[in-house]
Design brief:
The structure is a homodimer. By secondary structure, the first copy, chain A, is of the alpha/beta class. The first copy, chain A, contains 13 helices and 20 strands. In chain A, helix 1 (about 15-30) crosses helix 3 and helix 2 (about 45-55) runs antiparallel to helix 3 (about 65-85).
Chain lengths: ~425, ~425
C-alpha cells in the first residue's frame, strides 16, 4: 500500500463529464489499496474567466482581493470532484489550501509555501477516505488571509503536500503522456522520455516546457519527491522525474519502466523551445565602465525578468557598443518605457524591440563534459541554414536564439542531429510552450 | 456618524456594471461619514449555476461538499465589490463568513447562526475602511468547515452582523422600493408601506412575501435591529421594519418618513399571496382517536413543512372523515409516498394531491381585536364570486386558500375592500412570491 498524491490540471476537469472520469481514476487508485490525496486546479478556463471579471471592474485590483477571487475556482472543482468520488461509493472530503495546512508568505499573487501542516489530510487518510486539496492556494498565517501561488501553483501544491506527507510518489496528470524529446506538434517522431533527473527537468521547464512548473520541480528536488508526469486519458506510464544524474534511484519510488531505464542517464534529454520571449537592443551605448550595470539596474527596476544577454565588441573607432537582452514579451512595453526615461543619462542612440525571436534549448546531463555537443548543435543549425543570434549555456543546457519562423526547422534539425527520434539514443525533450 | 450595514442581493450585483454601480452607492455612504459594512450575495444566477453543476455530477451530493461549492459564489462577488470600491478611492476589504466571525451549527445547507464574533470587521472599521462580508455562509467552529445558511441566508447574515456590531440600521437592498400593500404586478394601485412592526413583517414573510427572509426578521426582532428595506436603484426611502405594535420607536433608528408615519400603526398592513403550496387530502380516515396524530407523524418524518390543516366533521353514518393539509409543493412527492406506505395501517380510502391552490393572507396588527375584519374579508371574496377552501388565522393574520386561478382576483378584491389603494388607510402589503 502506497501513499500517492495525484494532481489534475484544469484541462482534466473542464466539465462535469471529465470530473466524473477523473473521479473514476481516483476511486480505482483507492480501491487498489493506496492512500490517495488529490490536488486539483480550477476547471478549464475558470481562472481566466475570473481574471476577465476583475479586469472589467478595475485595471489594478488590490492583490489581496484578486487572490480571494481566484481561489473560488479551486473551491468549485474540489467540491465537485469530492461529490463525484462519493457518488462512486468511495468516501472523499475536500479541503481548501488553508484547511489542508498550506502555509505561505504574504506575497499575494505569487506566494511562496513556507510550511505544510497537513493534519486534516492525515486524519482523513487515517479514516480510509480520499482527501481532495485545492491547488494554487494557501493561507498567510499572520493575517489569516488566503493567498495564491501564481500560475503553475497547483503543481507546487501537489509536490509540497507530497513532501509534507512523505508520499511515495507525486503524480502530475495532464492531457499529454509525459515529457517528450521535443514538442510532438513540431517533431512528429519525438518520443516520450521514461526518466529525467530533477536538474534536467529544471532546465527543460526553464527553457519553455510547460508540462511541469519550475517551482514544483525545485520543491521536488529539495525534498526528494519522485514526480510522475502522466496522462489522465490513459493508464500508460509517463515520465518519472527523480534523482540526480548518477544517483541510485530508490526502486520503490519508480514504476517498472523507469527501473528498466536504469540509472545510466543519456547525455541528451531533449530539445525544448520557447516563443514567448522578445529581444531588446540598446544601440550605441558609450563603452565606458558602469554603463551595462546602469542599464540592467533600470531594467530590473521595471520588473522585467531577463534571460539572455549579449554585448557586442566595441568598435574601436566609435567607442560605442550594442547591448541586447531577451525577456518575456509581456515585460517589453514597461521595460522600453523605463529605458526611454534614461536615454540622456546613458547617452545611447536608440532602442530596438524584436518580438520575432525563438529560443531552442538542448538539455542533458553530462553535456559540459562532452565538448562535441555544442559543435554538433551548431553544425546541425548551419546545415539547416539557420542563423544563430544569441547563445547561452549552463552545466546541462545550451540555448540559442533564432528567428521565430526558423524555430520549428531548428528544433527538427537538432532533434535529428542528436538521434533523438531513433531508438539508439535515450533522449528526451519536452512538449514546448506553443503560443 | 452612524454604523450602517448594507445588504445587496444577487440581482443588485449581477454583472461587472452593476457591481460598479453598487460600489458607488457604498462609497457615497462612506464619504457621508458613516461606518459601512456590506453583506453581499452571489452574483445573479451564480448559486443556481453551481447547483446545476452539482446536479450534473450526482443527484445526492454530500451536503458538506455542496456547501463548500456554493460559498464560491459570494467569494467572487465580495472580492469584485471590494475591488470596485477601492477603485473609487475608498479602502475596502472583503471577508468570508468565517473571517467575519459568523459561527454556525453543523447543519450543512441550512445552518443556524449561533454566534457572531466580528473582530476583523470591527478592526477594519476602526481603520476607516469598508468591510465587505460574504452573505449566506458561516463556519462550523467544531470542524472548521464552511456552512451555508440556506436560501435567504444573506439577509440573515446582514441582520446578524448588524446585531453583532450594534449597528444603527441594517439596510436590505433589492430591485424593489420596499414592502407594498400588495404585489404591484397584481394590484397596480398598491402602495409602498413606510413602516412595519417585526410581527407584521414576520407574518408577511411567512405568507409568501419574499422581499425579506423570515429568519432575518426573527433575528432582527430578537436583537432589536431596525431593518430598512429599500431599492438599490434609487435613493428613495423604503420600508422601515422596527419596533412592536404600540411601541415607541427609537427616532434615531428611523428615517424622517418613518417618523412621520408615527407609532399609530394601521389595522391592516397588507395582502400577501403565495402560489408555492399544494394541498393533500387523506380521504376516508376512520374517525377514531389518534388517527390524525398518526398521519402527521408520518408526514413530519417525511420532512414536510405543514402549513394549514382542515379536518371535516365526521359523517355520522360512515364514521369516516377527510383530513386536508397544505405544504410546499416540492414536499409533495415524498409525503405522498410516505402516506402510501401506511394506508393499510391507517385504513384510509385514498389520497388526493392538488397543486392548483393559492393562498391569500391579510396581515395587520390589532386584527384580533377588530371582529369586523374577517367579516369584511369573507364578504369581499363572496362578492367577487371566489370560493374559500380553507381558513387559518393568527393574532395578526387571516389566510384563506382559493383556487390558484382565482388568486389574483381575490388579492385585488381584498386590497380594495380594505381601502389599501386609497390614501385613507395606512395599509401595507407585500410583494408576492410569483411562480
Amino acid at each position: 500500500m502506497a501513499l500517492v498524491v495525484q494532481k489534475y490540471g484544469g484541462s482534466s476537469v473542464s466539465d462535469a463529464e471529465s470530473v466524473k472520469r477523473v473521479a473514476k481514476r481516483i476511486a480505482e487508485a483507492k480501491r487498489a489499496g493506496n492512500d490517495v490525496v488529490v490536488v486539483v486546479s480550477a476547471m478549464g478556463d475558470t481562472t481566466d474567466e475570473l481574471l476577465d471579471l476583475a479586469a472589467q471592474i478595475t485595471p489594478l485590483p488590490p492583490q489581496r482581493e484578486l487572490d480571494i477571487l481566484l481561489t473560488a475556482g479551486e473551491r468549485i472543482s474540489m467540491s465537485l470532484l469530492a461529490m463525484a468520488i462519493n457518488n462512486l461509493g468511495v468516501k472523499a472530503k475536500s479541503f481548501t489550501g488553508q484547511q489542508a495546512g498550506v502555509i505561505t508568505d504574504a506575497v499575494y499573487g505569487k506566494a511562496k509555501i513556507v510550511d505544510v501542516v497537513p493534519a486534516r489530510i492525515r486524519e482523513t487518510l487515517d479514516r480510509g477516505q480520499v482527501a481532495i486539496v485545492a491547488g494554487f492556494q494557501g493561507v498567510n498565517r499572520a493575517s489569516n488571509d488566503v493567498t495564491t501561488l501564481g500560475r503553475g501553483g497547483s503543481d507546487t501544491t501537489a509536490v509540497a503536500i507530497a513532501a509534507g506527507l512523505d508520499a511515495d510518489v507525486c503524480e502530475i496528470y495532464s492531457d499529454v503522456d509525459g515529457v517528450f524529446t521535443a514538442d510532438p506538434r513540431i517533431v512528429p517522431t519525438a518520443r516520450k522520455v521514461d526518466r529525467l533527473t530533477y536538474e534536467e527537468m529544471l532546465e527543460l521547464a526553464a527553457s519553455g516546457a510547460k508540462i511541469l512548473a519550475l517551482r514544483a520541480v525545485e520543491y521536488g528536488r529539495r525534498y526528494g519527491v519522485p514526480i510522475h508526469v502522466r496522462s489522465s486519458f490513459s493508464n500508460a506510464t509517463g515520465t518519472m522525474v527523480a534523482g540526480t544524474h548518477g544517483d541510485l534511484i530508490d526502486p520503490n519510488a519508480l514504476t517498472s519502466t523507469a527501473q528498466e531505464a536504469g540509472v545510466e542517464a543519456p547525455i541528451i534529454s531533449g530539445v525544448a523551445h520557447d516563443r514567448s520571449e522578445a529581444k531588446i537592443t540598446v544601440v550605441g551605448v558609450p563603452d565606458v565602465p558602469g554603463m551595462a550595470a546602469r542599464i540592467f539596474e533600470v531594467v530590473a527596476a521595471a520588473g522585467a525578468n531577463i534571460d539572455m544577454i549579449v554585448q557586442n565588441v566595441s568598435a574601436a573607432h566609435t567607442g560605442l557598443t550594442d547591448i541586447s537582452f531577451t525577456l518575456p514579451e509581456a515585460d517589453g512595453p514597461l521595460t522600453l518605457a523605463a529605458l526611454n526615461g534614461v536615454q540622456k543619462e546613458i547617452g545611447y542612440d536608440s532602442l530596438q524591440f524584436d518580438d520575432q525571436i525563438g529560443k531552442l534549448s538542448l538539455v542533458g546531463a553530462g553535456m559540459k563534459t562532452n565538448p562535441g555537443v555544442s559543435a554538433r548543435l551548431f553544425g546541425a543549425l548551419r546545415d539547416a541554414g539557420i542563423n544563430i543570434e544569441m547563445i547561452s549555456t549552463s552545466e546541462i543546457r545550451i540555448s540559442v536564439v533564432t528567428r521565430a519562423d526558423s524555430l520549428d526547422a531548428a528544433v527538427r534539425a537538432v532533434h535529428s542531429a542528436f538521434e533523438l527520434d531513433s531508438s539508439e539514443g535515450e533522449a528526451v525533450v519536452y512538449a514546448g510552450t506553443g503560443r
